[in-house]
Amino acid sequence: MSSEAFSKHRTLPWQVAVCLFVCAYLALGLATDSLRGYHWCMLLAIPGALISGERGRRFFLDWTPLFAFWLVYDRLRLIQPFLYSRVAVEQPFLIESASFGWLAKGSIPAHAAHMWLVSQGGMTATSIVWAAQIVYLSHLFVAPLAIAALWVSGSSRTRYRAVFLQHIRAFAVLNFSAIAVYLLLPVAPPWWVTLNGMTQPTADLVARSDIGAAMNGALIQVMIRSASQLFAAVPSLHGAYPVLLLLLFPRKESRLALAAVAVYGCAMWAATVVLNQHYVIDLLAGALLAIGAWRVEGVLNKRQHD
């Protein structure tokens, strides 16, 4: 093989780094007995890195902030047991009740919606639950797909490249700020209060909790059972993501598309409450953090162009 051919096929440092990181991450999961089936999909990154060229390098570098967040968030499952004694249970409930109890006749909106769905049954309730679940789970796909579309468009158009980088920076600020809050102020979601009242979480109580009795929807129940952090209610990223997408939406684009993002955000907020996943104050906290991330990104963008 000629030296030129060898250089083309030589494993580059970034490719080695990707391979080593994937192996180390999976090894940590095995060592801590915290691997889930979907973690093995990470192995696809190894051949993806080894057979890709410059475009692959750019992809991994461009998406590192989001990949890093997903992996750090996933590892919160190892830290959660150390947070049980600090989880805020009663205070958020009392704040929600004082602020929005008037919407639920003295109860709180999430609990009132849950009890209504349980009492109704029938096709109407089932349809509402399934619609809410679909909207709730779309949180995992809508923002990444929107950012991916910008990344693809940005490969040939400078304007979309700039918008992609704005989204990556803003979501990185939002995501890692949320993790910091989760660690500093873990908060119990409303379904925990439905199940256990104001009881402080313990490892035994968490393990014995029958979450199916506190929330509607088989898909949501499966998702929560495998969640990395059960007490990351504040801020609600389900509430924050649509707000940040709306703030970042290019104002020169279609007004109809902008309205669709706003409608999607309203549907997401309603779904989180209907499914007993979040207090309204969680959503408001998420919106405030989204606004903060948007402002920080604006400062970073301005400094970059000065």
Summarize the structure.
The protein has helices at 3-9, 13-31, 45-51, 54-74, 76-79, 90-100, 109-120, 122-137, 142-154, 158-184, 190-196, 203-208, 218-225, 237-248, 255-274, 280-305. With 306 residues, it is an all-alpha fold.
Helix/strand layout:
Elements: H1 3-9, H2 13-31, H3 45-51, H4 54-74, H5 76-79, H6 90-100, H7 109-120, H8 122-137, H9 142-154, H10 158-184, H11 190-196, H12 203-208, H13 218-225, H14 237-248, H15 255-274, H16 280-305
N-to-C CA distance: 48 Å
- Low-pLDDT parts are 1-7
- Separate helix tally: 16
What's the β-strand tally?
Answer: 0
DSSP strand (E) fraction? under 5%
Overall outline: globular
Mind summarizing the main beta sheet? none
Whole-number count of domains: 2
Helix-residue proportion? over 70%
H and E string: HHHHHHHHHHHHHHHH
Describe it.
The chain is mainly α. The protein folds into two domains: 1-80; 83-305. 71% of the residues lie in helices and 0% in strands. The model is unreliable at 1-7 (pLDDT under 50).
Properties at a glance:
about 300 residues; mainly alpha; 2 domains
